[in-house]
Design brief:
Radius of gyration: 13 Å
Order of helices and strands: EEEEEEEEEEE
Structural class: mainly beta
Number of helices: 0
Largest sheet: 7 strands, mixed
Length: 126
């Protein structure tokens, strides 16, 4: 079992930045791929970005966030980060971290991920 806890959400103005954190307990995340999803009201969770376990930390970004968001990981802290810059009102959502406990990303479908955090709200005001 693994427990994931997100933090760092909040209210920010358009063009601002936030850094989300996802810290794990119960298991070491260093050998697992991790991903961030977000969920808009009334919609299903959508893939935002993921990072593989591999040494080069291969990443994959959704088109909507590429160039503005950056995922990184600190294995010593068992934590994954999501740096969000140039935020837009359409980024307003609940953000979740997730893992399928596999070395490589199991795709972009939320159903492929077994473990989720509780989510953290990000609100971008115009």
């Amino acid at each position: 079992q693994v427990q994931l806890v997100e933090s760092g959400g909040g209210l920010v103005q358009v063009g601002g930045s936030l850094r989300l954190s996802c810290t794990a307990s119960g298991r070491t995340l260093s050998t697992y791929a991790m991903a961030w999803f977000r969920q808009f009201p009334g919609k299903e969770r959508e893939f935002v970005v993921g990072i593989n376990w591999s040494r080069d930390g291969w990443t994959y970004y959704a088109d909507s966030v590429r160039g503005r968001f950056t995922i990184s990981r600190d294995n010593a802290k068992n934590t994954v980060y999501l740096q969000m810059n140039s935020l837009k009102p359409e980024d307003t959502a609940v953000y979740y971290c997730a893992t399928g406990l596999s070395a490589h990303l199991p795709g972009r479908a939320a159903a492929n991920y077994n473990y989720w955090g509780q989510g953290t709200q990000v609100t971008v005001s115009s």
